[in-house]
């Protein structure tokens, strides 16, 4: 099963990369940009028949390794 | 008394740390990250570098190396545990220190001497130093910007001129007990006047003076 994990930095944590990209966009004349955040998507191929169980196991992977609970939230989406 | 200097794949400051500790009369040995028994050691230093390639997040994979459960065991019984640069990142990922390290405020890899001020002298990094003492040591990092939403850390060293955006200008922080410390700039790279500064020696001396027999 194809699983996508979206890892997002919590809003209260600074995102220097997003801030600098926004500055560059503004320099290029795009003055309509109010904020930029850079997040991460990890794609996994996971074996299993039950999407619910696959989701539970990938959420466990997120808590253990894929996301840092101090900084980040995660969202797991199980596809086909 | 012996200090274990942990080597992960990608660690690159281990020899500098061993050299600096030995120059102070300390006994230090390199220990591969797959080691599962640190029973012969009285303290641990996790040196700088790019453990496991810094993949995913700095320190994220290193924290699961077999040696880390021994490092946690030693920390729990009060032994000195010091993480320098990448080692600081590993200790945060392992949950042994509060907070996390993110990219520097200006997205630049900073590689230069910085001035730091001692703010706490009851930790394994600073017990031989004085409050307010200013120390000039090299900073060498991209993810050196410490953040802690919980603000539960003891500040040990603070940057005089915060170069990376670190919360509270933190250059080094400690756990509540003062025996687990993470420092972002490198004391071992300022351990001889030949290197441009010997200011880091007081920090490494503090570490050695904190060792007690296992």
Helix and strand content put the structural class of chain A at alpha+beta
Largest sheet of chain B: 9 strands, mixed
- The share of residues in extended strands of chain A comes to 25-35%
Average pLDDT for all residues of chain A: 95
Which oligomerization state do the chains in this entry correspond to? heterodimer
Distance between the termini of chain A: 6 Å
Shape of chain B: globular
The spatial strand order of the largest sheet of chain A comes to 2-1-3
Output the structural class of chain B: alpha/beta
Arithmetic mean pLDDT of chain B: 96
Task: State the helix count of chain A.
Answer: 2
Strand order of the largest sheet of chain B: 2-1-3-4-11-10-9-6-7
Rg over C-alpha atoms of chain A, rounded to the nearest angstrom: 16 Å
Q: Work out the largest interface and the residue count of each chain.
A: A-B, 12 and 22 residues
- Largest sheet of chain A, described in full? 3 strands, antiparallel
Distance between the termini of chain B: 8 Å
Which percent range fits the helix content of chain B? 10-25%
How much is the radius of gyration of chain B in Å?
15 Å
- Estimate the global geometry of chain A from the Cα principal axes: elongated
Structure description:
In chain A, 35% of the residues lie in helices and 26% in strands. Chain A is built from two helices and three strands, in the order βαβαβ. The mean pLDDT of chain A is 95. Chain A has a three-stranded antiparallel sheet with strand order 2-1-3, with helices on one face. Chain A is elongated, with a radius of gyration of 16 Å. With 80 residues, chain A is of the alpha+beta class. Chain B has a nine-stranded mixed sheet with strand order 2-1-3-4-11-10-9-6-7, with helices on both faces. Chain B has a two-stranded antiparallel ribbon with strand order 5-8. In chain B, α2 links the parallel β3 (43-46) and β4. Chain B starts with a strand and ends with a helix. At the A-B interface, α1 of A face loops of B.
């Amino acid at each position: 099963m194809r699983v996508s994990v979206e890892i997002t930095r919590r809003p209260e944590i600074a995102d220097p990369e997003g801030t600098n990209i926004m500055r560059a966009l503004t320099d290029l004349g795009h003055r309509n940009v109010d904020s930029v955040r850079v997040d991460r998507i990890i794609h996994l191929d996971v074996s299993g028949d039950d999407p619910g169980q696959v989701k539970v196991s990938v959420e466990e992977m997120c808590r253990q390794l894929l996301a840092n609970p101090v900084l980040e939230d995660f969202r797991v989406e199980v596809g086909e | 008394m012996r200090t274990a200097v942990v080597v992960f794949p990608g660690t690159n400051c281990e020899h500098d740390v061993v050299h600096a500790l030995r120059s102070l009369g300390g006994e230090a040995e390199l220990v591969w990250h797959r080691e599962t028994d640190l029973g012969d050691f009285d303290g641990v230093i996790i040196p700088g570098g790019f453990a496991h390639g810094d993949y995913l997040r700095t320190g994220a994979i290193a924290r699961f190396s077999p040696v880390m459960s021994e490092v946690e065991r030693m920390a729990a019984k009060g032994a000195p545990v010091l993480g320098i640069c990448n080692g600081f990142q590993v200790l945060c990922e392992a949950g042994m220190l509060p907070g996390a390290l993110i990219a520097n405020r200006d997205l630049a890899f900073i590689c230069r001497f910085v001035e730091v001020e001692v703010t706490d002298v009851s930790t394994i990094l600073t017990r031989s130093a004085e409050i307010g003492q200013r120390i000039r040591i090299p900073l060498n990092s991209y993810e050196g910007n410490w953040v802690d939403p919980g603000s539960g850390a003891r500040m040990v060293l603070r940057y005089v001129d915060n170069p990376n955006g670190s919360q509270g200008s933190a250059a080094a922080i400690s756990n509540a007990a003062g025996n687990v410390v993470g420092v972002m700039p490198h004391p071992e790279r300022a351990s001889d006047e030949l290197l441009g500064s010997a200011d880091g020696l007081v920090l490494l001396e503090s570490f050695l003076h904190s060792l007690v027999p296992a």
